[in-house]
TrEMBL record:
GO terms for molecular function: 2-oxo-hept-3-ene-1,7-dioate hydratase activity; 2-oxopent-4-enoate hydratase activity. The lineage of its organism: Bacteria, Pseudomonadati, Pseudomonadota, Alphaproteobacteria, Hyphomicrobiales. GO terms for cellular component: cytoplasm. Residues 75-255 form the Fumarylacetoacetase-like C-terminal domain. InterPro entries: Fumarylacetoacetase-like_C (IPR011234), Fumarylacetoacetase_C_sf (IPR036663), HpcG (IPR012690), Hydratase-Decarb/MhpD_sf (IPR050772). It comes from Rhizobium redzepovicii. It comes from the Bacteria. This is 2-oxo-hepta-3-ene-1,7-dioic acid hydratase. Keywords: Lyase.
Amino acid sequence: MITEQERRAAANALLRAETDRKPIVQPSKTYPGLELEDAYNIQALWAEARTAKGARVVGHKIGLTSRAMQMASKMTEPDYGIILDDALYNDGAQIKADLFIKPRLEVELAFVMGEDLEGPGTRIYDVMRATEFVVPALEIIDYRTEVPRAITDTIADNAAFGAIVVGGRIIRPMDIDIRWVGATLSKNGIIEESGVSAAIMGHPAAGIAWLVNKLQRVGGGLKKGQIVLAGSFTRPVDIAQGDVIQADYGPVGSIGVSFV
């Protein structure tokens, strides 16, 4: 464990990296005693500082939802981060590439909560019952620290969250079998990635159930109206200024964005 003073120093360093668009040395190198609990506390301090300046928490993201990514990170469970309103974009947006350091895109589904949901013991059917809408989404991931990164670095860095883009067709959770939503991700007219939502822990709601139970341990939960990014079902694709992105979810709609 590290001290509260060191946690605050790490959070401030990440805030500077975000503002200056320059990655910092990995917190795990600066503070060798950094543990998972410290990392989530740093993330919370970062969010506290951002909301103090006017940003608003609108939801959460879940990462490391595939077994392969968990093994690569030497983890046995997913991780999570916080979504702020100033990082929320709509279909058709023109997004400034220089808002990020090294952005990449992932294909996901976003759940919009229709009621509050708290643990413990939350299961997939509880998530489905509490969800009002599901909508296609893209997550822009970004690193504010140098690489290679330990899992504690990723978590402290808000689980590498950069921004979210929502679009496509708004569906109710029981309207389709959301395990079998397929999508292709095209960059500048070339399909770069494809996948199916069952790749997210077998069911897109599984990670959200995990998140609710995890948040309960720190006195939290999900609130009505919040957005939850359920996890990626494609590999990340590098993006840069000038790129035009199209994510095609078939009958569930599509998302198009450009980076300027």
